[in-house]
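Field notebook, page 488. I keep forgetting to write these up properly, so this time I am using the form the group agreed on. The chain and the ligand, NAP, are recorded exactly as supplied. Prediction of the bound pose follows.
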Amino acid sequence: MTLAPTVDAVEFPAEALYLDGQWQTPAEAGRFEVINPATEEVVGVVPVASADLAREAIAAAARGFETWSRTDVETRAATLEALADAMERHRLQLGALASAEIGTPIRDALAGQVDLPVRVLRSYAQLAREYPWDVRDAAGSSIVREGAGVVLAITPWNFPVHQIVSKLAPALAAGCSVVLKPAELTPLNALFLAALTEQIGLPPGVFNVVTGKGSVVGEALLQSRGYEVVSFTGSLGVGRHVGAVAGDAIVRATLELGGKSPAVVLEDADLETAVRTTVRNCFVNAGQKCNAPTRLIVPRDRVGEAVELATEVAESYVIGDPSDERTTMGPLVSAEQRDIVTGFIAGARAEGATIATGGDRSRWDRGFFLTPAIVTDVARGSVLAREEVFGPVLAVLGHEGEEDAVALANDTEYGLSSEVWSADPARVAALARRIRAGQVRVNGVRTPALPVSPFGGYKRSGLGRELGELGLDEFVEVKAILGDPVVE
Ligand code: NAP
Ligand code: MG
């Protein structure tokens, strides 16, 4: 596939961030090079913003909120649709940019970083029109829902456009303004989105993008206390800190954190389909996926067969240039991330696990590539059985029957997602209800085209939900007006 530039390519100034409806190149700021993880070449340069600039962004968003919160619902719904249209017009350019920044194969970048967020925007346009903004309760009081205020959005690098839009769409629908601090590794798609909001005429200050280091500008934004909601997606460690600051400031925190999701296969399931589907799902985006099913839990007497099948699938990946449509796995996002993953593999081996395949980086002299790994003989309670790797590593574990499988599946501090497999509808339905996780996927069901099912974690996988009506609730305040002389 050739990625011809779109006719009217979106342009935004290099080394600038988007604040108060303007592209600004802060004089005092440092610079950060965005690296293509496949080629190690520079894709773009963005400013590393200071703490002062963070405060400016919050002030701009406070002004933006004054304007945006007073718009009517139809204006906001139409704006979301206009943004979706703009993304579609620039589909190839945005997909190529996301692929170059993340290293994800172009086909996946188009599907996950353009088409999916477009559907999320459209779903929120629809939800905004149907949402109970102003209704009467049983006592005759008016229950008015309105935008909570300035939103601080902090996002990671793995599915960046989707993660940003999952916050931006409901926030804008509610009438909130947003300051976004995108991941340092993948800021360009965020600036691209800002350029699109400029193109569609979103008022100044409603969407601001401040690039830079989480520990500096992210921390300054967090400590600014000039926001009413912080919506964070990222690691458990940083999420814990965000939640603590939010708790002290008495602002709402939505936390989408990590996962160690199980795929539970009962003895009556079609093992081959279950294993093949799980491996492919686990290795999407080179395994850098918070809801990846990274623990394949199969009947003990079928572990050997499962490992053999999983190995075959793992070895069938076409690993290489993400811009090539034939590529099915790209590199990891950074050298650091690859080192973390190889560290987990080495650690598992030291704890007695067997690496059936993968974990090899020697084939490449540039780019942060790694062959996907299938690991067996993983001891219960070991690091690989419990901790998130965030890379292409699947642990295969054996269970002694349904009860044991449930215990194993729930034996983690995370609870983001899960898969259950059985040929018996009643059994699989009951099993789904026993898994302590925010999502359960039955027998390999795919993600629905309509992205409104809530996404989020039980236990330490987070607080709150994204997508659908629950995702909108996160950005809404509720006011009861007693004795309201309602004029219909
Ligand atoms: P991370 O290190 O927690 O970073 C996430 C974001 O927080 C980045 O923008 C980061 O900025 C920023 N940040 C770091 N320190 C900060 C601070 N002190 N104050 C404010 N912001 C700060 O996570 P990551 O390494 O980018 O992403 C991987 C993790 O995200 C994994 O654990 C994964 O499971 C999780 N994740 C969860 C979901 C979900 O929906 N549940 C989805 C995807 C990923 P810098 O980039 O500049 O460090
Ligand atoms: Mg990080």
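OBSERVATIONS:
- The two ends are 56 Å apart (CA to CA).
- The chain has two domains: 17-257+464-481, 261-450.
FOLLOW-UP: compare against the apo run.
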